[in-house]
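> call design_seq(struct)
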């Protein structure tokens, strides 16, 4: 699995506490990495991603992070 948003993992398998400008929320960052992998493997075609959390918890930041990691050539034909 890519680790560009989770910033790599501890030896115990969880995302680093501080990585890519994010603090905490390890499970959310790991989930975003999983989404990036699925998009790259073309397993999310025609699907949407719903980010749900209280205001200011990082939904926009995560969406921007995902788009930044994927770049502009997500689905070249
Ligand atoms: N885990 C985090 N680590 C560091 N900064 C964070 C984290 N989560 C959110 N932030 C920062 O907090 C601010 C608010 O985040 P963001 O705008 O992404 O939240 P949001 O969930 O989209 O908010 P809203 O629901 O109000 O639209 C941003 O500057 C973002 O970078």
């Amino acid at each position: 699995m890519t680790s560009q948003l989770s910033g790599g993992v501890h030896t115990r398998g969880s995302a680093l506490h501080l990585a890519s400008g994010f603090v905490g929320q390890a499970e959310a960052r790991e989930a975003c990495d999983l989404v990036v992998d699925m998009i790259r493997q073309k397993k999310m075609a025609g699907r949407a991603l719903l980010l749900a959390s209280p205001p200011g918890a990082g939904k926009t930041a995560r969406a921007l992070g995902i788009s930044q990691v994927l770049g502009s050539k997500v689905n070249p034909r």
